[in-house]
Fold:
Amino acid sequence: MKDILNIMRFDFLTAKTTALPIFGVIAVMCNALGLLFSPMMFVYVLMAASFLIVQLQTYAEKYGFHKLYGILPINRKSITRGRFQYIFWTFFAVEIFELIMTKLALVLKLYRILPNQENETMQFVAETFNAESTLNYSLIVGIFVVMCVFFSYMQMMGQIFGQENEMKIVMITLAVITVGALAFFGLDSYDIIPHINVLPDFDAMSLAKRTLWYIGLNAGAFVLNVLFGEITAGKVSVREL
Amino acid sequence: MEQMNILEIKDLCKTYDSFALKDVSFTLPRGYIMGFVGQNGSGKTTTIRSILGMAKPDSGRISVFGLDAETDSIVIKERLGVVFDSLYLAEHLNIRQIEQQLKPFYKNWDSKEFFRRIEDFDLPDNKRIGDFSKGMKMKLMIAVALSHKAELMILDEPTSGLDPVARDELLDILGEYIEDENRGVLFSTHITADVERIADYVTILHNGKVWYTGTKDDLTESYAVLKGDEKELPDAVKPKLIGFHNYRNGFEALIRTDDLAGLPTSLEYEKASIDEILVYIAKEDKHERHSEHHAV
Structure:
């Protein structure tokens, strides 16, 4: 466990100097806009957190970190596991922060300090601050799950098949998802398969049930992250450096 | 009780598509520096990668500090300092940030010692390490090794690409490091002048095999460069010559000093340098290949 934490720390320090300022600027902007105009803006902060992962990947490739990992007194599998945990906890930390920001935005309703409250645009803005709706929270949890699983998957494919094939992997993955989704919705619309609600109606749920759902989605993302990490560690740790 | 030999390699074999290490065996006693020399592609880096667990040997045994390099690799790496010809660190960071990154990995890490070395080596701690010269990068890696109290330093081509002043400084640092008799240094190079200057032991690798391993003094005393007219050369001596080459003014070849007895006085000989030994081994190799080619 200590080794994994050390690698996560190592990875964060690598990415921090260049990626954190970019992420910080985007986060401050999106959080400010989110507080004033729409809590939906908070999901962009989650997307911007990917800088902290992409930048690390770039440096790891550029400076040949795999050789460094051969020198450090650490188990090879821990290195891979550390990288996957870094991905999960980076997104998770941002997710929690943005959920708190959402709560704050819905409580403060800062849009009320803006001028022209009566016009149509402001009416639309006010609707996004509807405390009854769970959409803002669900969006953040949903985007977190997508980002976390996507980046973990990409990390696995990149480490197993080589980062140079990253674009190919992205294209193939998107194509498979698109074809799968089109097939699913096509079959559904012609009633060939029974209708399935992909996501439940969160608005209709009690707070406790909804919280359980969110925890479940987070746990699912974590399990997939660990699974991809273990598959990668198994493949990569036997390779020569 | 401390092991007498800090590094032992026995019958190490490793085969790649176009290259193979064959039964590489040598030992480095504590308190000494070993120069690990050979042409490019002779297997030096593969041997070092095998010691570090970065390459998986097909057979053989590697023991560091008396521990098995495969099963005890983490314990070994705690006590090992490694300097490659490149840094493999995040070069956009400065020394302070690098120290922050590396120290959690080593139980014996001493930050005070690290920054004392950085000051001794005149390295700026607020500049991107990517902007360092190659000599500065080597010094940084040595500072890292010294800060976790490495007992064995393994350096892979550390002096290649360094200017003479930086090379001299690096060799001085290694000389100072080995003053502690519990330590050892294995450094691979094809710059034999460095080996002549600081090594106590030499291992010469040639085509994946150990051609010589032992003390430097034994090596240089065991071989001589023989020169003269080929007609003067007794037939019985010819097969003992290494890298025989006939020039317009006579022949030149490497010979074991034991085989010099009884040679005509018209033939001249002088002590061979390590550089010359390497050159004649390579010539012998070419000669053999040439002969094989003609035999076919």
Observations:
- Chain B has a mean pLDDT of 89.
- Chain B touches chain A through 29 residues (CB under 8 Å).
- The two ends of chain B are 56 Å apart (CA to CA).
- Chain B is about 30% helix and 30% strand.
